[in-house]
Amino acid sequence: MRAIVSKDFFLSQTLPIKKIDRIAISAYGGDLFGTGLGSAENFRIPAHVLEPGQVILNTAEWCSLLARVQNWPASMDIISLK
């Protein structure tokens, strides 16, 4: 799964989501979606989807993704997850 997203928009929607056990991330149809498994947390972000797909991340992987996006030097970049 690969999608180009806005750093600021992604972080504004996702930084509040930290207390999750697992989160499903999917990219298709011009959006990046996230749903906390076992919680009511979710988000939808406009994206340029390069490769549609879905992944499930644990808490450590989710926090790592947030940290990577926070460190992007550009305002837009590619989220690539397998």
Structure keywords:
alpha+beta, 82 residues, 4-stranded antiparallel β-sheet, 48% strand, 3-stranded antiparallel β-sheet
Describe this structure in words.
The protein is of the alpha+beta class. The chain has a single domain, classed as DNA Polymerase III, subunit A, domain 2 (DNA Polymerase III, Chain A, domain 2). The protein is built from two helices and seven strands; from the N terminus they run E-H-E-E-E-E-E-H-E. It has helices at 7-14, 59-70; strands at residues 2-6, 22-28, 31-37, 42-46, 48-51, 53-58, 76-80. A four-stranded antiparallel β-sheet has the order 4-3-2-6. Strand 2 (22-28) and strand 3 form a beta hairpin. The protein is globular. 15% of the residues are buried.
